[in-house]
Amino acid sequence: MNSTATPAVRCNGITKTYGAGEARVEALRGIDLEVYAGELLMMVGPSGCGKTTLISVIAGILDHDGGDCELFGQNLYRFSRKELIAYRGKNIGFVFQAFNLVPALTVAENAAIPLLLNGVPMDRALAKAVECLHEVGLKGRENALPSGLSGGQQQRVAIARALVHNPRLVVCDEPTSALDHETGRRVLDVLKKSAVCRDRALIIVTHDARIFEYADRIAHMDDGKIEKVEKMN
After folding, report:
1. What would the mean pLDDT of 214-226 be, rounded to a whole number?
2. Is the pLDDT of residue 4 over 80?
3. What Å distances lie between residue 83 and 21, 86, 90, 215, 228, CA to CA?
4. What does the alpha-carbon distance between residue 100 and residue 148 come to, in Å, rounded to a whole number?
């Protein structure tokens, strides 16, 4: 990682509030954060401190109230809704903590969704999806439905889906939470190999201390703020 390079992600003064009146909650309270190309940044902190809200804002999934967020020099919130969806579909992969698999689609079809949305023909999309599924240890499960998989297997489908279109930024919310240690390390190896290179970046929200060694830096969050960023390597 070259920290003198232009950041892949730059957040300046990001704020986000939920609710109003007595129910008002300040989820993000002026977040400043840079994530560099070629870097795996992990984000840690207690539940409810704003980690998932922050990565959702970074990925363009959630609107923010104030501040700026740039990805590879592009301010996402200057895009129209249509432009944002198109940019996100090509450049961002997101692993949701709840997996968000489509129950009626096979494992391979679920993993192929980003390619299909980007106009790749079905046969090519499925072939690439199968390759990604093999990389995360799901060879032989390509034609299964999500309901026939364990939680850990569903999580690996979600990871394959996030990687299949070679996005420039991959954002993961607890990607190893349903995995045993050995499988978690295998998945982190795949994530780091696929998502961390000169013109890409990887952000992982985690409570799993077993995978901290994979991080280049760890951002510690609490109460809607970045408390410190710790260099690991």
Report:
1. 95
2. no
3. 34, 5, 11, 32, 34
4. 15
Query: Residue 82, SS3?
Result: helix
Whole domain around residue 172: which residue ranges?
38-49+81-231
Return the number of other C-beta atoms located less than 10 Å from residue 168's C-beta.
Answer: 17
Per-residue confidence at 21, pLDDT binned at 50, 70, 90? confident
What is the model's pTM?
Answer: 0.91
The CATH number given to whatever domain includes residue 95 is 3.40.50.300
Residue written as tokens 């969806």? 85
Residue whose pair of structure tokens reads 């260099």 in the numeric block: 231
Say if residue 58's pLDDT is above 60: yes
Any residues with CB less than 8 A from the CB of 149 and at least 6 apart, and which?
107, 141, 157
Distance CA 11, CA 68 (A): 6
Neighbour-count burial for 181-215, b at 16+ CB within 10 Å, e otherwise: eebbbbbbebbbebbbeeebbbbbbbebeebeebb
3 has pLDDT over 50? no
